[in-house]
Give the backbone structure.
Amino acid sequence: MMSKQQKKNYVEEMKKVFTSNEAVMIAHYQGLNVNELDKIRDEMRKSGIFFKVTKNKITKIALKDTKYKELEKFFTGPTAAAISSDPIMSAKILSKYAKSGSSLKIVAGYMDGRVLEAEDVAKIATLPTLDEARAKIIGILSSPAQKFLSILLAPGSKIAILAHEKSKKS
């Protein structure tokens, strides 16, 4: 049982975490054992995501003064929250474990000022991560530059080859 001071500290900690991040993904973990939860938590931590098995009643209090107050209704039963600035990575990790046959079930999420249903979170999980998107953009931008450069260099190289061949004949 938590003391009043511990509850107060929990509420303050959760408020800080909620207000300093862009997205929240909520999942129910009933049926997962400690090892499975630790695997999820470790993977989340490696991606810079705060993954917390919540105390629902106290978490609802922490949500009241944040932009996530609409999520209160989802904090029932054995609930965990993935809180981060990268909603795509949070959704990817949760979806991976939900699809892997574990007992993890995505319930809802919050991103860009709106509540997401479980299906929306699954769709977000299919999007490329920020790093993947950057790599694709760089690939797209560098491709025309390489083609342009080869076009510019082609006439010069052809002239050099012709001059070389001409000098051999003379």
Summary: The chain has two domains: 4-127, 128-170. The chain has a mean pLDDT of 86. The helical segments are 4-19, 34-46, 56-63, 87-99, 118-125, 130-169. The beta strands are 23-28, 50-53, 79-84, 105-111, 114-117.
